[in-house]
Design a protein that fits this description.
Family: Belongs to the ATP-dependent AMP-binding enzyme family.
InterPro entries: AMP-binding_CS, AMP-dep_synth/lig_dom, ANL_N_sf
Protein name: AMP-dependent synthetase/ligase domain-containing protein
GO biological process, one term: secondary metabolic process
Largest sheet: 6 strands, mixed
Order of helices and strands: HEEHEHEHEHEHEEHEHEHEHEHE
Keywords: Ligase
Strand order of the largest sheet: 6-5-3-4-7-8
Structural class: alpha/beta
Length: 338
């Protein structure tokens, strides 16, 4: 069988070799986003909000807390096992801000078994686990089963409360000036595990910077800060990276609820919807979905099994002819090779 190789229609673009992600965020603002622009918002009533400038400020403060109070250092791994919220991206950026490695996976949720948590911990071997109160007991049990791994365990609320009571100077961005950012890890991502146990993928600062630069390289005429999205699971690419650099708006759901998701997408006038095939099929077969105005949606990104043609046609009818992109290997593909 002949190999089918896709070659991009776009030329290679320049990816800086001597910057960390946090240095990139401090130095560049390609969409000219004002610091007070809202980029992250919890869906729940009275939920928290984060602006473009605030994300940088709070990440730098949290990074100072991690290094000064908890004694973490560049190269240390921090795992997040917590419900989805706007604080999730802040913690992720804070870890990378001081040169740490953030271990995260959308599969690490309230339904994750202790056995699966043991697998994640065995691979990532974190020095700190940031979790939610209700999930802490399960994480503590998983930690007890992993030999040689004894991380500090801290609840999100505890972390932010204690941090607010300390008078700390913001941490400077992790400095990779004159160094090769391809050999400095920034994140450990896990695959979905559809072919066995989830596989770990190590992303460098170079990989991540390449990913956040791609929209500007492939869609230079588009104002990416106008993109709007609702995410219902911890999403490193959609909720952590893109809003921080491009200034797009993301509504964060604590957990998935179909009706609440559709309502939030319509109310927020989202431009992109990311989903799994089961959600796509549910939308296509929903007899009441037309009561919601989803005409603002320009793209649907569906990861997993291929959608049937009639499902695609129905979705395009609901979304007024939007483009539907089906993908797989999302954890692995964004790794940019030199």
């Amino acid at each position: 069988m002949d190999h089918q190789i896709y070659e991009s229609i776009y030329p290679d673009f320049h990816v800086p070799l001597h910057l960390s992600l946090s240095q990139l965020l401090q130095k560049y603002n390609p969409e000219d986003v004002p610091d007070n622009k809202l980029i992250l918002e919890d869906l729940s009533p009275g939920g928290r909000q984060v602006t473009y400038g605030q994300l940088r400020t709070e990440a730098a403060m949290a990074a100072a807390y991690f290094t000064t109070v908890l004694g973490l250092k560049a190269g240390d791994t921090v795992a997040i096992y917590a419900s989805n919220s706007v604080r999730y991206p802040i913690v992720a950026h804070a870890v990378m801000w001081f040169g740490g490695v953030i271990a995260e996976d959308s599969g690490m949720n309230a339904l994750t078994s202790v056995q699966d948590l043991v697998h994640y911990l065995t691979i990532s071997r974190p020095m700190l686990v940031v979790t939610d109160g209700p999930l802490r007991v399960k994480m503590e049990e998983a930690v007890s089963r992993v030999e040689g791994v004894n991380p500090m365990i801290m609840a999100l609320d505890e972390l932010f409360t204690d941090m607010s009571q300390k008078c700390l100077s913001p941490c400077l961005p992790f400095d990779l000036s004159g160094k090769d950012n391809r050999i400095h890890p920034a994140s450990i991502m896990f695959s979905s595990g559809t072919s066995g146990k989830p596989k770990a993928v190590l992303w460098s600062h170079y990989n991540i910077i390449a990913h956040v630069l791609q929209p500007r390289a492939t869609l230079p005429e588009q104002n990416n800060s106008l993109e709007r999205e609702v995410v219902y699971a911890p999403c490193f690419l959609g909720a952590v990276l893109k809003p921080a650099f491009l200034g797009c708006y993301v509504v964060v759901m604590k957990r998935f609820d179909y009706e609440a998701y559709i309502e939030a997408c319509a109310k927020s006038r989202v431009t992109i919807m990311k989903m799994i095939p089961a959600t796509a099929v549910a939308i296509a077969k929903d007899q009441t979905v037309d009561k919601h105005d989803l005409g603002s949606v320009r793209h649907i990104l569906c990861t997993g099994a291929t959608l049937q043609e009639q499902i695609v046609r129905r979705l395009q009818d609901i979304m007024k002819g939007c483009a539907i992109i089906q993908s797989y290997g999302y954890v692995f593909v964004p790794i940019y090779l030199d």
